Amino acid sequence: MPATSREIGRRPAPMDADYATLIADGCVWVAGDGAALAYAAFWPLGDHLYLDAIAVLPEAAGQGLGRALMDHAEAEARAQGLGAIRLYTNAAMTENLTLYPYLGFTQTGRRVTDGFDRVYFEKRL
């Protein structure tokens, strides 16, 4: 699901998220046919929807689950009157650096935060 330590050189930040609280707060969505094959965590933050994590198990790749979760995030943002979705990814996640622009996101910055080399993206809705 989240990036591996091998890819970014340390334990990825999503691995330390408090998912029990995020689930209780209604911020996590799961996709799969009877099994949790993909998930997304997002919530409103100011004038935008903040996409904290989106991941698909490797064996479920190519089934459209990630796209369905991203579409759901966009629909939620629009329903809440939010004008954008914002996210960041680790610079070592090179597939993401190609994927997000393909999905309509624009890179808005890059900086090291908490020791992570992060690339920031936004999609205007």
Automatic annotation (TrEMBL):
Record-linked InterPro entries: Acyl_CoA_acyltransferase (IPR016181), Bact_Acetyltransf (IPR050832), GNAT_dom (IPR000182)
Q: Which UniProt keywords apply?
A: Acyltransferase, Transferase
Task: Please report the name of this protein according to its UniProt entry.
Answer: GNAT family N-acetyltransferase
N-acetyltransferase domain location: 1-125
| Keyword Acyltransferase in annotation | yes
Q: Which Pfam families match?
A: Acetyltransf_1
Q: Which organism is it from?
A: Pararhodobacter zhoushanensis
In terms of CDD domains, this protein maps to: NAT_SF (cd04301)
